[in-house]
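Throughout our pipeline, every protein is held as a single compact record rather than as scattered files. Such a record has a labelled line for the sequence and another for the backbone structure tokens. This encoding replaces a full spatial description with a residue-level series of whole-number codes. For reference, a complete record is included directly beneath this paragraph.
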Amino acid sequence: MNKTLLLIFIFSLNAFATLNSIIAIVNDDLVTFDQISADIKPDHTRVQKLVLLNQQINLILQLQKIKQLNITPKANAINGILSNIASNNDLSLMQLQSLPKFDEIVDHVKQSLSLEGLRQFIVENLGIKLTKAEITKQFLKIPNHSNKLEQQIKIAQIAVDSVNQANLLLRSKDDLIKDFLIDLSEKINKGDSFSTLAKLHSQDASYKNGGESDWLVLLKLPKIFQQNLKDLSVGDLSQPFKIGQVWRIVKIIDKRSIDNNLIELKAKLVRQKENIYFNDWIKKIRKEAYIEIFDNKL
């Protein structure tokens, strides 16, 4: 909207009550007193009211960018947060939907997700690098910074839960599968490729990767898994063991210890750098925007 036309339009709105008076213009949007009144306390000074107003202006600028960039939260993300809100308040989703202010809750969720989507869009290609000095300096500030080491392993497995039905007339299914896996173990120990045999014989979805897994947290594996792997070193092969109806042999591909304190610290430092960049970006778009503040109405 043309600046002159916008001002004419504003000052012609004589019907606005004091609480809803216009206190700022942000590009084509108006900021009214009631948009910040809920956060104003009786003892707030004009300076404190200006802080609230500037926060509202920054929010409006971000919402304008969200509209320009067509950033829209996905339905499953919205529904996920609504489910969490219901659960945290001991409500079913249906009960939450029946509340008089449900539409306001949905709007708030959509806005929060859109704002985070904008932030991710702005910072996604930063490629932030942390120096060893930065990490060490912050790590030493952690009270009682004892390591929270998490043991992780990477495995390859051959899993089998069915055999040729004709052979079941002579021996039990468990015996047949166990002996089959023992035969495969002997081949592997003699030099045959575990990956090739997994692709040929494993009935687990991991067969496509030669039976290999991603990194697994050792203590989160089933107890039987832990018991059969605890004494194995990298490169070792387990004896056949059964979990539920599935027999398997497992090879230890790699082991590592992850310091969760360090992981959390790095994530925090990256987030801080992203926040600095994002706040500088808001200052930039603010300089480029048309903003007029009527602080005499605060």
